[in-house]
Amino acid sequence: MKIEMENIRKSFGSNDVIKDVSFSIQGGEICALLGENGAGKSTLMNILGGVHQMDSGAILVDGKKVSFEIPAQSLEAGIAFIHQELNLINDLPIYENMFLGREIKTKRGSLDLKQMHDKTADMFERMNVDLDPGKMVRDLDSSYKQIVEICRAMMTNASIIIMDEPTTSLTDSEIKRVFKMMETMKEHNVGIIFISHKLNEVMQICNRYLVLRDGNLAAEGNVSEVTTKDLASYMVGYDVRTESLRREREVEEEIGEEVLRVEGLTDQKNFRDINFSIKMGEIVGVTGLLGDGRSELFQAIFGAEKLPSGKIYLNGTEVKIKSTYQALKEGIAYLPRNRKENGIIKDMNIIENASIVTWPMFSKRGVINTDKHWQKFEEQRGSLRLKMGVLTDSITSLSGGNQQKVVLAKWLASNPKILILDNPTQGVDVGAKEDIYDIILKLAEENIAIIVLSSEAQEIIRVCDRALVMYHGVIQGEVQDKMMNEHSIMSLATGGELDLERSGQPL
Amino acid sequence: MKPELENTPPIKEKKTFIEGFKYKWSNDPLFSILIALIIMVILQTLTLGFDYNSVGEWFQSWTSNWINILRNNAGVGIVALGMTFVIMTGGIDLAVGSTLVITGAFAMYLMDTGSAGILGAIGISGVPAIILTIILVIGLGYLLGALIGVTITKGNVPPFIVTLGAMMIFRSVTQHFAQGYNTSVPMEFLQISSFKIGNLMIMPIFYWAVIAAILYYVSKRTTFGRQIIAVGSNERAAKLSGINVNKVKLRVYALMGLLVSIAAIIQVSRIGSMDFSNAGRGMEMDAIAAAVVGGTNMLGGRGFILGTVYGMLIIAVMNNLLNLFGVPPYLREAFKGIIVIVAVLLQRKEKSV
């Protein structure tokens, strides 16, 4: 089977995400789809998977024009999309998961468990998978879950499979297992579109590559003809701003006193033996890949999770932070990731969202001091460069970037000493992103200690003084100055060591 | 004084009455509820008829009909206000009817003039006994509510389960310990509800109005009131904003218990006794119905104290209407059911735009 996408265009509002992209893929090849975050990879694949509709262009299956308005049509045509978050039901056995939504039934209308079990076993045999179909999905590790999803896609007779960053949360041996599976599928003449950030993997498993940059097709060709260095430069482009925004520090003493020190912090599940400290006016980045535990770590420090073992010192005195309210009083602020789930409260308006943190601080006998909140917000509004209507408009009337600024405003109103920003530019457009960087730098000048959690190495390099790189719940290493580049960050984030020879020069 | 805003809303252009009505209908959730209430009141007034000798006589009859309606619903009305807060946090309280019975029984045993009287046994009587009773009963209601709240928050058990359990426990315990006793309430205590102002027995209505006014202020202007919305709308975000979610929930259930105990005092002082096996049965459903008709979102995050008052009145006026029309008693619940569903259907329509 051959799939062609011709002159695809797609925009969300005024934001052109895909600008005239054409490519094709056929059975039996593994094609890497590369690009930075926001380059349009997911959008392009979502169009192919029937999740989004293209504005113009055409999709051809074996030369015949088709239209995918819903995911089911795409699936029908033989295209399976394996999302980054796996769609498996943990509480059902593997074989029932394999037939989710397409259950085999007996004549009397009950589930034909035996047949489902046997068919699954057949499929596993064909694909050389060593798994008991009766096992509960809950008991599988991530690589086997990934494999079950692949087999499920095969079960629907998919001839093209889209895999969205399948290896981000896997260990090396698990990755090998998935790659073996992909080779087997290739032999079965299945085409695979492999979305990944890991260039070494691309070199290892893929035949072809496609690079998207800012919604354009930046490069394509055969993997055998390029090096990882070439691919990286195609992805980044030559004109991208990577220089650090951070002013050079003239004297080392300029950095203030230590504000936060953490010793041996462990919660058993998500992070282990964490040690670090941060000084006034410092911007420290914390990065890593999915499953590195950085969000959990800082949510625990913020008192939103169960108290971890180990010690936390604020300004030299040990504290036990048991609730977010206590953290707030101690001067710690935390801007959460996933704004929609954790940040905004959609039943409340802009000013209420912007003042929620400081309600108790500004209140007299429990009565909210509305005037003071309005004043405070008006003071902040200019420096945050907020674009909005009236203060009493619904928070959902704002764009993502402006919503994020409101969430930031609610914390700034509390005058924090330590500001933890978890993915601060998630789902934020480029302009607002720069605004947020500016704000971060300005706050550091006001001697606030800032911790930026981000999965984007670029972001860390641009705003941070130094960065901690986490891998599976431990701090794998720390980078600074010249060592703070994408290569060494990626190397640490994938569980490697700092390569002192190579990391000096940018990739 | 509000600081000057850069972007003050443009001065609204003159709208025709119809346009203004449409705008309010689809943007102000309380407006449609109020319109529904007004229609009900007009219908009721028409049904009562104008078959009187003078306007004064008509007015007197109309007023006394209304005072009856309001007085009969004051208890549930007060409970419904607390229920609104509970539902706004995303919870539910099924135990209100049983809490009513247990606090009511406690009140009666405290001040019984006969042999069972606890306060009488230790030599307190008269007005001090009544004041002490009120304090203790309200304290018990608050405690029981707090107990429910602690179980929900610390035990991490769903509110439905905890209050379902409490509903069975409270009534069962009350019935067991109260069997075989006849208590009699002192005459002075009855004055709490029966005290007449200008020949009208309106004290329960007065309590309801005062509590509604206080809670309206609480919901609009206090930290607690706004935190209820935050917790119900997005608990995770509320927690990550430094709100002590458990404390907010605990206080909401404790407040619920307190309000129920006030309703219990009103009921006991109005009737002079309480039927422990039947009093308060279905009260939780009536309170939920009033809140829902008043625009409270069962999933939490949205609710209006004023809306619940309207909702309670709509249901009450409808009961009165059914009575006037002579609808058979068994069918009346059906109408109540229809009102609740229709009210929510109407609200859905506005929201889905």
Automatic annotation (TrEMBL), chain A:
Asked whether the UniProt record includes Cell membrane among its keywords, one would answer yes
Checking InterPro entries in the record gives:
AAA+_ATPase (IPR003593), ABC_carbohydrate_import_ATPase (IPR050107), ABC_transporter-like_ATP-bd (IPR003439), ABC_transporter-like_CS (IPR017871), P-loop_NTPase (IPR027417)
Subcellular location(s) per record = Cell membrane
Keyword Signal appears in the UniProt entry: no
The Swiss-Prot or TrEMBL record annotates one GO molecular function as: ATP binding
Q: What is the name of the protein in this document? A: ABC transporter
Domain ABC transporter residues, every copy: 3-239, 240-497
SMART domains attached to this UniProt entry: AAA (SM00382)
Instruction: List the source organism.
Output: Oceanobacillus arenosus
Membrane topology, as annotated, equals: Peripheral membrane protein
Q: Name one GO cellular component term.
A: plasma membrane
Recorded hits in Pfam families, A to Z, give: ABC_tran
